Amino acid sequence: MGGDELAIKEQPENQGHTLADGTKMKAPALLYDPSVKRSSHAEEARTLATRHTTATLCTVSKQHADHPYGSFVTYAIHDGKPIFLISALAEHTKNLIKNPKASLLISENASDDPLASARVTLVGECKKLEDAEIENARATYLLHHPKAETYVDFRDFFFFGLDVSAVRYIGGFGKMSWFEHEDWTKAQPDPLGEHANDIIVHMNEDHEDALVLYCETMSAASGVKSAIMTAIDRYGFEMEATTETGVHPIRLGFSKDITTPDEARIELVRMVKQARKNASL
């Protein structure tokens, strides 16, 4: 699953930012094949939500005239929806009992430029789980939050779940979309998600020469002074190539879908061998 298989409403190209002189910002020319396979926004959003365990829960205030009320919470993804273990004393719990409408903001916060970080807002109704759901939800939650074992059975703590009806995903500047419950539930987290950062660090620290070679021989970039890997997923990887004209994004696809770090290593080695052959032609 990837690309156009989901009914995602991405940001129209003509809705870019307006510059100081009144003209519309234009996207730079791509230096790679735009048809290269990539994760859908729904897949990226599911991967982001699965990888994290803390977020901002926004509820409708009971005490302050229906104002939005944001709370720092811990969560886990269980059967495709965020679940929470929350105290009856918490303001957000009181708010949800009165009005279940809520949203959950999950952010990467991994970039030097915070607004370039990926984030997702899940919108829906957050309600107390039924008794039949609690046993499995409890196991999932404690797997991600083992310290909650000390209070999980307190009588004034309850499991709630957010039934996602709509999703707003922003993957960085100019990369954004709305999608619905069906797209969210169909999408699967990327199998490399929890390993991606380790692979990226390894490639940038030990194989910058290979990254430059990828850019020079497998994209339209030329005169590449340096390159760094910025992302990797089951379908391929992304780089930033620095040339005389600036910093340019490059995406290259794998020959097959990757599911493990070892498969990613094998594929990256295969590609660098191909890049060397290309360079010798």
Structure overview:
This protein is α+β, with helices and mostly antiparallel strands. The chain has two domains: 40-186, Pnp Oxidase, Chain A (Roll); 196-280, PNP-oxidase-like (Split barrel-like, Alpha-Beta Barrel), CATH 3.20.180. The protein is built from seven helices and twelve strands. It has helices at residues 41-51, 91-98, 131-144, 181-186, 196-206, 208-218, 261-280, and strands spanning 9-10, 54-60, 68-74, 76-78, 81-87, 101-107, 119-128, 157-172, 175-180, 226-232, 236-243, 246-253. The strands form two sheets. Strands 1, 2, 3, 4, 5, 6, 7, 8 and 9 form a nine-stranded antiparallel β-sheet that branches. β10 and β11 form a beta hairpin. The model is unreliable at 3-7 (pLDDT under 50).
